[in-house]
């Protein structure tokens, strides 16, 4: 790790390590209101498998590299244990002059299930902001349509006996209060089916702006996307490379990638971008992070998109851990309201 002061000097003197600070601009969705930013259509996910442990420095350094290479949208959550690291990377980026102001970034975090109770929402957001050392989030999401018995439970797997029904109305009211207090510029949900979104919409004063869900060529979410489009809700695609449903091994995507001189990952990301969603891709590897940015100046042909649209579908993240005999969801069918 290079010391911060040394880094700043390297940057001032145009050292090769910092000579290609990218101006690569990532397309954004138009802002919903005057005090919100447009959502950058590609963001860096920060969820990683297993405990972060010794990789803490790697994650922080990766986020700093991402900012250097032009990423401006970052997605975190208490359960990922990356909020503090993202906060430190943002502070470093400001000190190094990689960005002039925090306002250049779009930052999303999420309400974990053990905080999905009316009275715990605001304190949870305050804790998140404290972790990030930020005054506001750009987007705050209900992470899952699930509540876990109150208590500081930020670990997986969740104890089955602690899973209780979420009260969508009162939790959403508390989310609205967070936006009204200016602690987040916008609010939304994650892993919600059409039916569960409709429940929120039926009482919401402020409708959710985003539903963040798994989406990749092998889990295309056609029904949910149509519903969200009709309701003016943006889809944010997580797991666009489908690590959990082996998208990178798909023969069709391999063929398309070869024909285009692109990687399978780039084909997946371009596909999601062309489908009109915002894509969150996680990589802590500098080369892959750069590779994932190179999706804006080429296109899939109509035939390629059509072939992708016919791929057999298989969900990667089922949410099995939220299913319990005595809890609100006794089967995956119930959790996803049949959308599985
Ligand atoms: P890494 O951080 O080592 O790059 P998913 O879309 O399902 O969340 O997949 C994320 C996984 O894909 C991560 O393990 C990440 O590993 C890997 N990954 C990210 N970008 C690429 C890429 N361009 N090529 C291959 N693997 C990638």
Automatic annotation (TrEMBL):
<dbReference type="InterPro" id="IPR018170">
    <property type="entry name" value="Aldo/ket_reductase_CS"/>
</dbReference>
<keyword id="KW-0560">Oxidoreductase</keyword>
<dbReference type="InterPro" id="IPR044497">
    <property type="entry name" value="AKR4A/B"/>
</dbReference>
<feature type="domain" description="NADP-dependent oxidoreductase">
    <location>
        <begin position="41"/>
        <end position="308"/>
    </location>
</feature>
<dbReference type="InterPro" id="IPR023210">
    <property type="entry name" value="NADP_OxRdtase_dom"/>
</dbReference>
<dbReference type="InterPro" id="IPR020471">
    <property type="entry name" value="AKR"/>
</dbReference>
<protein>
    <submittedName>
        <fullName>Non-functional NADPH-dependent codeinone reductase 2-like</fullName>
    </submittedName>
</protein>
<feature type="binding site">
    <location>
        <position position="143"/>
    </location>
    <ligand>
        <name>substrate</name>
    </ligand>
</feature>
<comment type="pathway">
    <text>Secondary metabolite biosynthesis; terpenoid biosynthesis.</text>
</comment>
<dbReference type="Pfam" id="PF00248">
    <property type="entry name" value="Aldo_ket_red"/>
</dbReference>
<feature type="site" description="Lowers pKa of active site Tyr">
    <location>
        <position position="110"/>
    </location>
</feature>
<feature type="active site" description="Proton donor">
    <location>
        <position position="80"/>
    </location>
</feature>
<dbReference type="GO" id="GO:0044550">
    <property type="term" value="P:secondary metabolite biosynthetic process"/>
</dbReference>
<dbReference type="InterPro" id="IPR036812">
    <property type="entry name" value="NAD(P)_OxRdtase_dom_sf"/>
</dbReference>
<dbReference type="GO" id="GO:0016616">
    <property type="term" value="F:oxidoreductase activity, acting on the CH-OH group of donors, NAD or NADP as acceptor"/>
</dbReference>
């Amino acid at each position: 790790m290079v010391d911060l002061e040394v880094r700043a000097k390297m940057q001032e003197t145009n050292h090769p390590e910092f000579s290609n600070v990218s101006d690569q601009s990532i397309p954004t969705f138009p802002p919903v209101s005057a005090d919100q930013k447009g959502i950058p259509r590609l963001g860096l996910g920060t969820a990683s498998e297993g405990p972060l442990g010794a990789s803490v420095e790697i994650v922080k350094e990766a986020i700093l590299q991402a900012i250097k290479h032009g990423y401006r949208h970052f997605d975190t959550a208490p359960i990922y244990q990356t909020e503090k690291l993202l906060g430190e990377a943002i502070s470093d980026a400001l000190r190094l002059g990689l960005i002039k102001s925090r306002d250049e970034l779009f930052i999303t975090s999420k309400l974990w299930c053990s905080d999905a109770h009316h009275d715990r929402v605001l304190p949870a957001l305050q804790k998140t902001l404290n972790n990030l050392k930020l005054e506001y989030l750009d987007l705050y999401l209900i992470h899952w349509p699930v509540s876990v018995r109150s208590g500081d439970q930020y670990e997986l797997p969740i104890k089955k006996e602690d899973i209780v029904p979420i009260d969508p109305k009162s939790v959403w009211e508390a989310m609205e209060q967070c936006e009204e207090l200016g602690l987040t510029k916008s609010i939304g949900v994650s892993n919600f089916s059409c039916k569960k979104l409709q429940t929120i919409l039926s009482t919401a004063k402020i409708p959710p702006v985003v539903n963040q869900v798994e989406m990749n060529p092998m889990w295309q979410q056609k029904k949910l996307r149509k519903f969200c489009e009709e309701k003016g809700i943006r889809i944010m695609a997580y797991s666009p490379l489908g690590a959990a449903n082996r998208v990178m091994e798909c023969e069709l995507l391999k063929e398309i990638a070869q024909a285009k001189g692109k990687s399978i990952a780039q084909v997946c990301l371009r596909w999601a971008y062309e489908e009109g969603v915002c894509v969150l891709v996680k990589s802590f590897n500098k080369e892959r992070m750069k590779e994932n940015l190179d999706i804006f100046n080429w296109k899939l042909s109509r035939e390629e998109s059509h072939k992708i649209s016919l791929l057999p579908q298989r969900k990667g993240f089922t949410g099995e851990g939220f299913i319990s005999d005595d809890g609100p969801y006794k089967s995956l069918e119930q959790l996803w309201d049949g959308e599985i």
